[in-house]
Design the sequence.
C-alpha cells in the first residue's frame, strides 16, 4: 500500500510540475498545437461563405434531332470549360475562401423521359452556352427549376425508397483511362456504336413514380497535374519509377547487404566491378503488346485537359414500384461498357453504397440513404473522386447520335435559323 501511495503521489507531483511549466510557456506551445484546428475550421467557414454567396442556375439542354457526329464536339466543349481553371493569391485563398469554379453535368430519367442538365454558377452561364452553341448550333438551352424538387425533400420515407452510390474507379491511380468513344468504332463499317445507347435504354424503362439520376461534378485540374501525378504512372509503366526510400529502410537495406556479403569478402579476393548498367533494350522490346497499348493510352490521355470528377447515381421510386433490378443492376450493367480490364472502369463505391449489415441495419441504412440524397442535392464533392480527361467526360456525357432511337429521349424537332440579313429596318 505504501508503495502504491508513493507512486500515486509521484504521479500527481509530476502532473503539477507539468502544469506549472505549461502555465509559463503556454503562449509558445499552444499556438502551434491549435493552428491546425484553427486552419481547418477557418477554411471550412470561409469556403462555405464563398459558395453561399454564389448564384447557381440549372440549364436543361435539349439536343438536336439528327446528330451525325461522334462525341468529339462534346470533347471540344469540355476543353472550352477548362478555361475555368485559374490561380489565386494567398489573400483570395485564405481570406475569401475562393477555389476554382465547378459545375455539374447530369443525365436523368424522370418517369421514363430522359433529360440532360448542366448546373453552373450564374456568372459562368455565358461560357457554357457559348461553347455548347459553338459545337451544336441547333441545340436548345433553357433555364429550368431543379428537378430534384419533383420528389419529396426527405427520402426515404413511408412512401418512397432510394438506392444509390458514388462512382468509384477500378484502378487506384487516376491516370489510367477508361474505355473512350474511339474504342466503340466498328472495324468493318467504321461506324461508331454510341456508348450511351445502352444507358439511355435503361433510363427509358423507368415507369411512373420512378426516377434515375446520374451526376458528374467537375472542375479543371491545375495544368501541372499531368506533368507530376500523371507522369508518375507513365514512368512506372516504362520501368523508370523513382522509388522513395525512407532513411530507416535504407539503413536496414545497407546493414543487410553488408552482413550477407561478409562471407564472400572473407573467402575471395576483393574485386572492384563497375556498376552494372540497367537493361538498355528498346522500350518496345521490353513491353508486351498489351503493356505497349496501355502505356500509349495513358500518355495520350495525359495530353488532354483533365478534370477532378465526382460521380453519383441515385434511383428513387415509390415503394410499390421500386425495382432494384432496373435501378441498380441495369445502371451498373450499362456503366460496365466504359471499363477495360487492362486500364480502368467504374464501380459502386463501397463506402457510400446504400447497404448495411449486422447490427442496427435499418437505422444505418436510412442514414446512408439520407446522406447520399443530401449530397446529390447539394452537388458537393465529398467522398471518392477521380480525374477524367475531356475525352473521357465526352464519352460518359454527350448527346446521342441519330442511331439512338429511344422514344424516351427528348430532342429539338426544328432547326434554329437566324433572321434574313436583308430585312428592312424602319
Sequence:
Amino acid at each position: 500500500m505504501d508503495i502504491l501511495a508513493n507512486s500515486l503521489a509521484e504521479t500527481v507531483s509530476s502532473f503539477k510540475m507539468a502544469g506549472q511549466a505549461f502555465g509559463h510557456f503556454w503562449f509558445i506551445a499552444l499556438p502551434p498545437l491549435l493552428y491546425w484546428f484553427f486552419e481547418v475550421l477557418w477554411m471550412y467557414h470561409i469556403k462555405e461563405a464563398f459558395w453561399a454567396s454564389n448564384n447557381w442556375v440549372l440549364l436543361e439542354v435539349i439536343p438536336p434531332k439528327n446528330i451525325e457526329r461522334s462525341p468529339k464536339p462534346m470533347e471540344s466543349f469540355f476543353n472550352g470549360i477548362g478555361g475555368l481553371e485559374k490561380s489565386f493569391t494567398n489573400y483570395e485563398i485564405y481570406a475569401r475562401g475562393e477555389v476554382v469554379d465547378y459545375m455539374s453535368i447530369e443525365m436523368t430519367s424522370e418517369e421514363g423521359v430522359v433529360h440532360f442538365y448542366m448546373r453552373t454558377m450564374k456568372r459562368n452561364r455565358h461560357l457554357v452556352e457559348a461553347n455548347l452553341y459553338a459545337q451544336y448550333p441547333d441545340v436548345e438551352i433553357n433555364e429550368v427549376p431543379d428537378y430534384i424538387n419533383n420528389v419529396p425533400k426527405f427520402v426515404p420515407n413511408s412512401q418512397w425508397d432510394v438506392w444509390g452510390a458514388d462512382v468509384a474507379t477500378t484502378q487506384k491511380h487516376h491516370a489510367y483511362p477508361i474505355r473512350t468513344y474511339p474504342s466503340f468504332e466498328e472495324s468493318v463499317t467504321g461506324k461508331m456504336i454510341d456508348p450511351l445507347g445502352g444507358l439511355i435504354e435503361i433510363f427509358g424503362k423507368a415507369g411512373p413514380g420512378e426516377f434515375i439520376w446520374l451526376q458528374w461534378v467537375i472542375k479543371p485540374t491545375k495544368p501541372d497535374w499531368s506533368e507530376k501525378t500523371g507522369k508518375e504512372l507513365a514512368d512506372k509503366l516504362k520501368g523508370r519509377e523513382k522509388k522513395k526510400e525512407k532513411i530507416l529502410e535504407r539503413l536496414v537495406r545497407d546493414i543487410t547487404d553488408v552482413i550477407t556479403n561478409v562471407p564472400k569478402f572473407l573467402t575471395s579476393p576483393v574485386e572492384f566491378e563497375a556498376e552494372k548498367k540497367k537493361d538498355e533494350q528498346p522500350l518496345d522490346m521490353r513491353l508486351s503488346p498489351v503493356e505497349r497499348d496501355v502505356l500509349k493510352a495513358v500518355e495520350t490521355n495525359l495530353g488532354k485537359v483533365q478534370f477532378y470528377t465526382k460521380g453519383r447515381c441515385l434511383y428513387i421510386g415509390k415503394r410499390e414500384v421500386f425495382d432494384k433490378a432496373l435501378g441498380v443492376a441495369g445502371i451498373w450493367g450499362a456503366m460496365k461498357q466504359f471499363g477495360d480490364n487492362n486500364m480502368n472502369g467504374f464501380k459502386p463505391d463501397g463506402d457510400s453504397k446504400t447497404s448495411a449489415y449486422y447490427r442496427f441495419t435499418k437505422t444505418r441504412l436510412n442514414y446512408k440513404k439520407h446522406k447520399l440524397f443530401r449530397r446529390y442535392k447539394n452537388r458537393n464533392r465529398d467522398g471518392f473522386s477521380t480525374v477524367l480527361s475531356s475525352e473521357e467526360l465526352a464519352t460518359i456525357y454527350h448527346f446521342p447520335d441519330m442511331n439512338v432511337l429511344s422514344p424516351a429521349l427528348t430532342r429539338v424537332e426544328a432547326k434554329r435559323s437566324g433572321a434574313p440579313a436583308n430585312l428592312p429596318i424602319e
Summary: Residues 47-229+290-396 form one domain. DSSP finds twelve helices and nine strands in the chain.
